[in-house]
Specification:
Layout lengths: L52 H20 L3 E2 L5 E3 H7 L5 H4 L4 E3 L5 E4 L4 H10 L9 E10 L11 E10 L4 H17 L4 E7 L3 H16 L7 H9 L10 H7 L11 H17 L3 E3 L11 E9 L4 H5 L3 E5 L3 H4 L7 E7 H11 L11 E5 L1 H17 L4 E3 L6 H10 L4 E5 L1 H6 L1 E6 L4 E6 L3 H8 L8
Helix pairs in contact: 5-9
The structure holds adenosine monophosphate.
């Protein structure tokens, strides 16, 4: 989504091409900023944010599903460092992309290395593939990753300076079935999260057909130069495809008459694209052809795609949940032997925000079928020990040990969605018993205090009555 940019304020992060040595004394006291004026509380850095406990259950769901989907399609997890050599992104993502030109957090280390916080995951995955000789493994190699990315982007709704991506990469295979399957994986992922989305697809062809198309585009927009803003004139010179992404209404209007890339595709790319669409039709994945979809990273060839949430929310509808495509030249560009590859990533912040907006939940994150309630000092002690018994038996339990009011505890049990509440009061500690309350039926029974875990196991169907 780097392709869809509002004009940027001058970033204070140093642009990659312009790497003057940072103070070598970065680690010494002189390099520390002066003390802040006033004693107000320090706030989170602009564009960064805390993922608070109340939202963690959304993130847990999204992350668990990532793991499940990746394994079920035969992807293996890779974790690459947050910091890479700046050159990786300059060479990988492209020098004249917004990501490298304006958005890279890069600096020189005290040891003189030019490094950057990763703005995306593909370049790192490719670097690792080459560095660790994965070219010699049976191909294709299927990798997935998830983690924070950093872009000195202009903060706004759905756009942060630290954001999370989930990425899938397939290296070492040129077949269009790979492109189609990546789209299918993304579609299934969103569907499993209850997100109604559409994938837009296009083909950028080979670098040659793309270059021819670029020339045609430049000629077209040159003929309309007087109507272009200064920013767009600059784009026309540096990265004309990005004009197609412009939100400027004048460009939108001009686009309608602009040449379309499909008319410039070489035969091989055309056939490849047709196959991708045929595979999608076969599986019944709905897609929209978007002749102006170009994406903001230079490495794409042939198929490109982006997911958009369906719905009324214009803001969300305009910002992609994720995107990807084929990048047949990237491995070679990063020093490996020519290797076709394709991949995509989701912006998880946007995925989570979509789930939150469309599927609000009033329950608190941690859900457990069993809650342990207590009354009085003795009851609390017994309950504390019982909690450990449940944990040892691998049965998730909840509690509110700091509360002494039973009504409050029952309310909390409800919010955790607990069906069974074990109550231990003064009387039960003296009798060596416990009460098990069925919250749905409103009934309760008294059981032997030593057999509480066993009784609950039976109720949860973990053991049969005969055992
Ligand atoms: P890209 O690597 O630019 O293709 O982006 C892939 C996905 O990452 C986008 O579709 C967004 O969902 C997400 N993304 C990109 N930049 C940001 C950002 N600054 N803040 C939040 N999400 C982002």
């Amino acid at each position: 989504m780097s392709s869809k940019k509002a004009p940027n304020k001058k970033p204070s992060a140093r642009p990659a091409q312009n790497q003057k040595p940072a103070p070598a004394a970065a680690a010494t006291a002189e390099a520390l900023p002066p003390p802040r004026k006033g004693m107000g509380p320090i706030q989170v850095v602009r564009g960064m944010r805390d993922l608070l406990p109340a939202d963690q259950h959304y993130w847990r769901r999204v992350n668990q599903l990532s793991d499940e989907v990746a394994s079920s399609y035969g992807f293996e997890r890779i974790d690459t460092p947050l910091v890479e050599e700046t050159a990786l992104f300059v060479r990988g993502v492209g020098r004249s992309t917004d990501i490298v030109e304006k958005e890279l957090y890069s600096w020189e280390t005290p040891g003189g290395e030019n490094v950057a916080l990763r703005p995306e995951g593909t370049a790192s995955a490719v670097r690792a593939y080459v560095q660790h000789g994965m070219l010699n493994l049976p191909q294709p190699v299927k990798l997935w990753y998830t983690g924070p990315m950093f872009r000195y982007d202009r903060p706004q709704a759905g756009r942060f300076r630290q954001f999370f991506q989930l990425g899938f990469e397939v290296l070492g295979d040129a077949d269009p079935v790979i492109d189609a399957q990546l789209i299918i994986i993304g579609w299934n992922y969103l569907k499993a999260l209850g997100i109604d989305a559409t994938v837009r697809v296009n083909s950028l062809g080979t670098p040659e057909s793309r270059a021819n198309y670029k020339n045609a585009l430049v000629a077209y927009f040159r003929s309309k130069k007087t109507k272009l803003s200064e920013d767009d004139k600059r784009r026309l010179l540096k990265n004309p495809l990005r004009l197609l992404d412009s939100k400027d209404p004048a460009i939108q209007e001009m686009k309608a008459e602009a040449p379309q890339i499909v008319d410039w595709l070489d035969e091989d790319s055309k056939a490849h694209f047709m196959r991708v669409l045929e595979y999608l039709d076969e599986v019944g994945v709905p897609y929209q052809l978007d002749p102006y979809l170009v994406r903001g990273l230079d490495y794409y060839t042939k198929t490109v795609f982006e997911w958009y949430a369906n719905g009324e929310d214009q803001e969300l509808a305009q910002s992609a949940l994720g995107g990807g495509g084929r990048y047949d030249g990237l491995v070679e560009q990063l020093g490996g032997r020519p290797t076709p590859a394709a991949g995509f990533s989701f912006g998880l912040d946007r995925v989570v925000s979509r789930i939150k907006d469309t599927q609000p939940s009033s329950t608190i994150g941690y859900k457990s079928e069993v809650f342990i309630a207590q009354l009085g000092d003795m009851g609390r002690k017994k309950a504390l020990a019982l909690y450990e018994e449940f944990r040892a038996a691998n049965i998730p339990v909840c509690e509110a040990f700091s509360k002494s009011n039973i009504k409050q505890q029952m309310e909390i049990a409800n919010r955790h969605g607990s069906k069974w509440v074990v109550v231990i009061g003064q009387k039960e500690t003296l009798d060596g018993t416990a009460i098990i309350r069925d919250m749905e039926a409103g009934s309760q029974e008294i059981v032997d205090g030593k057999k509480v875990v066993h009784e609950i196991k039976k109720k949860l169907g973990r053991i049969t009555n005969g055992e």
